[in-house]
C-alpha cells in the first residue's frame, strides 16, 4: 500500500481546509481529526469502511460542531480531512503512534511494516500542509498585533473496545501548564446545567508526544482551550447544533472574563 512518488492524487481531497478564513476574531479554531479520508494510493488501509467510520478513524461529530461554532462566532476554522489512521496530525513526528499498526484493538494492515520513506510521504503531504496553515495564520495574527486564543476541537468515544469503561464526562478540557484560558472556560461550563465536566479527562496534554496544543499553544505562549466532547452527544445534527450553541455561550463568557470585560 506504499510506494514511490506522490501520495495524494488528483482525485484525493486537499489535506487542509479553512472555513471563515477572512473572519476577524479573538479566536482561531483548529480541528485535527475532522475527516476520515484515505488516499486512493493506500486503498482503505485494509479496513472496512465501518472501521474508518469508528472513533479510531475520525473524531465523530466534531466537524459538524466546529463548522456551526465557526459560523456562530465568526471564527476562522482550520481543519484536516484525512483519517488519523493514515497519519496522526496531533503527534510529534517521533511518537510511536504517529502511524498506528493497531488502534483500539483493531489491526490496521496498511500501516504494518511501513518504511521510513512511506512515513515521510504521509508526513510531508498530509501533516505538514495542515500545520503550515495554522502557523501561517498565527504568524499573520502576531504580525498584525491581534491577540489570539487557540481553540482546539476534539471528540471522544464513550467507551474503548480494548479497555471497556463507560466514560461519564459530557465534555472534557485538556490543558498543560498554561491553564489561563481553560480556567474561565471551566467556570463558564460549570454555569451550564447538567454537565459532567472532565479536567484533563478523558485525556491530558502530553507535551512529549502530542503536537497541536504543545507546539501552537504552549510553545508560542498563546492562551488556549482544548475541548473533548463525548461522541454519542454529537453524532447527529441536532446534538451538533446544541453543542455549538452551548460552546458559543461558553467561549463568549470565558473570553469576557479572561479579557477583564
TrEMBL record:
Source domain of life: Bacteria
Protein name, as recorded: N-formylglutamate amidohydrolase
Organism: Labrys wisconsinensis
Organism lineage: Bacteria, Pseudomonadati, Pseudomonadota, Alphaproteobacteria, Hyphomicrobiales
